[in-house]
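Final report, Chapter 2: Outcomes

The project's central promise was a pipeline that accepts a single protein chain and returns its three-dimensional structure in a standardized token representation, suitable for archiving and comparison. That pipeline is now operational. To close this chapter, we reproduce one record exactly as it appears in the project archive, with the input sequence first and the structure output second.
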Amino acid sequence: MKMPGRRKWLLLGIGMLVLLAWAGSYRDTDEISLPLAKAASAVKPKTQVRRSLDVTALDLTARQVETDAGETANLFAGKSWYVAPPPPPAAKPLPAPPPTAPPLPFTYLGRYQDAATPIIYLVRGERVLLVRAGDVIEGTYRVDGIAGSRLGLTYLPLNIGQTLDIGNAE
């Protein structure tokens, strides 16, 4: 019975030695690889060594993150993948509406039939105007004549015709 106990301790001791030997060899390979790397770099020309060092230096600087001492990075900040749509194209301005004549400032008061041409009484404000076909009123309206129950007027600045209802022709 003592024999299995000794075997157990013997196997445990051998396992420990193998583990220590393996751990020691792992550390030794790092120390050995350093002189091998120096020997390999001695074989390369200096220009190749400098280029490889420059690339390494660039990679290291690219990975550095500059942070302000007063700021702390928010590790849980929300991120959105939303990309705003481009603004709509500028709309072409609508053309200006054609000019129109102002509403007629006259009201019909009555008419008088002279020999061959009728005379129309118009009121503008407090003024009473007597007009006939062909007359120009205050330089802005021309009386064209009576057509049925309407008096034709022309707004002279824009040469636009307008009509004024005068009722039945008697």
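Archive annotation: DSSP finds two helices and seven strands in the chain.
This record, like all others produced under the grant, will remain available to the consortium after the project formally closes.
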